Amino acid sequence: MSSMLSVDTLTKRYDDRIVVDGISFTVEPGECFGILGPNGAGKTTTLRCCLGLSVPDGGHITLCGLDVPGQARTARYRAGVVPQFDNLDPDFTVEENLLMWARYFEFSKAEARARVPRLLEMAGLQDRSKAKIETLSGGMKRRLTIARALINDPDVLFLDEPTTGLDPQARHLVWDGLKRLTKDGKTLVLTTHFMDEAERLCDRLCIMDAGKIIVEGSPRVLIDTLIEPVVVEVYGEDIAGWAETTARPLVDRLEMTGETAFCYAQSAEPLLASIGYQTGLRAMRRAANLEDVFIKLTGRDIRD
Amino acid sequence: MNFRFLHIVERNFLVWRKLMIPSLTTNLADPLFYLVGFGFGIGSLVGTVNGRPYVEFLAGGMLCYSTLNSATAEALYSAFSRLKMQRTWEGILHAPMTVADIVLGEWLWAAIKAVLSGSAILLIMYAFNIAHGFRPLAVLPVLFLLGLCVAGLALVMTTIAKGFDFFAYYFTLVLTPMSFLSGVFFPLQSLPLSVQKIALVLPLAHAAQLSRGLVFGDDMPHPGWSLLLLAVYGIVGVVVSIRIATQRLHR
Predict the structure, then answer these.
(1) What's the ipTM?
(2) C-alpha dihedral sign at A152, B7, A93, A129
(3) Which residues of chain B make contact with A104, given a CB cutoff of 8 A?
(4) What is the pTM of this model?
């Protein structure tokens, strides 16, 4: 079976700035593939290129077996898109947004009407079908955008930071919806900078930084191979002095940010024992997660 | 040839239908006040122009002026708000639609709305017994062409613009001078000969000549040339807008 999406040495420049720098990856049918990275890593640009919305400066993309951007419009009949910023049509109600969207996909008016009720139900918006877009909450808008992206029963769904700006309840609702879609065999390509989101949803993911893919693999494998298993976060007064003299010999790796020391180790016991006698320090032990991998690979500096 | 742009016309029509009553009321009321106020008011001072009552002369020009305003408002402000503020165009591109589909649809829609405005004037002209019989109806296709012409030019501004402020230049430097140099409110012959020559390339001037010719049977010096000029402006405008919008949206 051929890949749903194949990206080969994709390069994109804006003016003289290289935003995507020769990246390659493939997404197989039925897979949930995540593109992770700090702000400005090139995630959104990559998605836009995959859909034919941005024209690459180099490389080769096929989506659903069709060349992009050459046959991008045709490929989009098989794709659904959930953009980072909701662009629902504010001149229409909830229901009208779905109806009009169906028309852009060349469905007859009768067919469009037939498709809407199930999507409204899926988005939990049956009672708001006549509501204006501006009266919806952020979570409702996002659910409607996802429902809209499903109007053509797509093979592959592109989601650009699908839960950014949502409260925890709304995020979980969106995650449940996305998990159901993968269960139904849909292919998902999503970008995010929420590590728990990627860990929860993605079968496979890549981490991008400065336009390049640094690593690729399943979340579990990345955590197992790229980072020490245990993290102890210690904070308190004069943490820097303590970390250098006491902690460093007891751990594999040490990182400082402000008043907190992140201690990465095979085992937390020696370090915790040493803290036992130390007043004014507080420690939290946890298992390493994808965020630790991410920070290790992309650094702690702020990206704007 | 495909007809996907008709989905954009459909979209705009469905939105317009929600506000149809106030929109049609404006279409009728505005020109009514102009015709009554200027036509009969100033007309009583002016008397006749080119051998006919001023109100008739004005009505022939108003058909075109109103069409121009309507097409401009739609292709400039409404289209720009869909492009920039509401991100409607950007959204539609996520469906199997292209920038050309969107711009062509906006172009056609602006011209349709413009004809609606022009028709309102014609209706008022019939009501005031300024227009008679079926012959004046022949002006409607010309108004549609004028709508396409003006909308094409406005879409170039729309696709270039970064914000609404930019449109002030277009009004001050293009539309307002054109309105006064096209023989809409007063005959061109009142102007110095050198200034009259400018009108040779102004679409509104050509449209006004065609309009008075078709409605009242006035002399039309070069009808074929006039139609061609309107068409060329419109087509060049829309082709350029598609190019600019493509660069803007497919960054």
Answers:
(1) 0.91
(2) negative
(3) 7, 92, 95-97
(4) 0.92
